[in-house]
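Long-time lurker. I teach an intro course on protein structure, and each term I like to show students one example going from raw sequence to a predicted 3D structure in token notation. This year I'd like something fresh instead of my usual example. Would anyone be willing to generate the tokens for the chain below so I can use it in lecture? Attribution to the forum is fine with me.
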Amino acid sequence: MTKPFAPAYGESKDCLHLTWSSFDMNPLISILRAAHCRSTHHFFAIDALPMVQTDAGRRLVQVLLRHHDRYLTGAKDPDTRFRDFQNHVVHVTDGYWGGAPRVAHAWYDRMQRYLRTNRPGDAAHAAGVLSHYFTDPMMPLHTQQCEREKVLHRPIEWSVTKSYDAILKTWRDDQMRIVFDLSDRVGWLGEAILHGARYANRSYFPLLDTYDLERGRVDPPAGLNLVARRSLAELFGLAITGWARVLERAAGDAEAATGKPIASASLTVGAALASIRVPMRWWIRRIEHRREQECVTRLIREFQRSGTLQENLPAEVDIVHRVVAVHRHEMSWQQQRRRAQLASQSTVVEVQTPAPQAEDRPATAEVSAGAAPEIQAVSQSDSETGSPSSAADDRPATIPFTRPVTANPFATPAHPMPRCRLSRPSPLVDAPSIGPKTAQRFASIDVETVGQFLDQSAAQMAESLLTYWITTDTVTQWQWQAKLMCEIPGLLARDCQLLAGSQYNSAATVAVCDPHALHQEVSAFAATASGRRCLRGAEPPPLADVQQWIDNAARATQAAMAPSAMRRAA
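-- Reply from a regular --
Happy to contribute to a lecture. Here you go:
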């Protein structure tokens, strides 16, 4: 049976066949599957590795296996550390709403940067994170949302986790052949995610309709019937095969950029460490599974008792539903605003008929003679604007109105632009998130100004500080915050923190944003624990503030471009 899946545009490539016995050929993979994999995302990340077929891809697989601990940690960080659940979904029925494609591209670029600068451990972690954002939208519950899903989401995912090997065996025994071709376009990764979400969305309601909640509470695998298992088996094949193709593309891109093969990695040390950690990992998995079973049981009991979920509503479901509600409300508000703008951007000219008199001629003749100049004027205006004349219509004649366009894009705006609250010569202590003690730490490594801080490598500074809680990712976030404050006028420290937490790192990236989309992303981050720490009790920014950020970023970007544009013109 063939299950073609070709998200690419262009000629189809030959399908690469997999010998499933390769799962048993690598003892390290067997150890990782037996003791280290604790979730579906761990299994997806590991089970795709034997399917990588290219030479460059196999060299990357060696790196991922050597740094398997960071690879598997990254595969769960979006759930446990980042908690940006709005970026784990692609809601097909809401116009493909969701941040998964954008964030996946960001992490792919980060993995490429690490591979090209010979940082294999960081590259393995970035690959694990990317695998999460890539495979999540290919699961049905991440492609749509409804009220019933609030209750069923966590029990179904728990049943899938406990049934993983059985579902995977269904795919293997069915001898399906998944053809997953990647496009050569710039946005190939986002295309693959969107097409995968569309394919998975077909199983959304069948999965909800067939799941047996009561049986799943007692015996999680029993909650999924045969139809659900077969549907999930296809999607498992889609996610695993697709991730293998992504790893092949990533390895090829990295080697093409550097002009040399990815450095080989010995698996001897990795296998030894994995074996030593087996007892500890096995106990951790057992504890986590017991904790998850208790959470599912409490969820079902609350629903049976009250008919709704409050105390035991999963955070990932709650956050996504809240952000979707904001998205739909803003879309409705935007449509109403557009209708109001269209109504206000029209000039209405009414032709009134005078009351007929006994001694006058018939009213029709009087109207024809008296109204002719006015209707003629309307017709001339219509011809100038390209709109059809409505003189012969009984309704009021309408002349479209067009807003004047500013001839000089670099002209001084009517309202003066505020100044940036930070500059490169500023002392580092003035930057967001950096207090006096942290500034002293950076001063000890000769980083005292914002400019010096932005010019240094985040990895090198984190390594030189010798402080366990100041990691490379932490320093990178601080650099993004400082850069935003230097580039966007009027931005507050918490505004910079919210934007950086939403994966925006410069005025140029903010200037091109849709205000509603940016407001949703910032609101979603503000709802997380990290976002609440940034706000420190304050309310999340309203849409008007976000619009002001974009306007100021656009004006600052244009102002920065104006001198170079004037030099070219000269």
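Some talking points for your students: Residues 226-258 form the longest helix (33 residues). The two ends are 66 Å apart (CA to CA).
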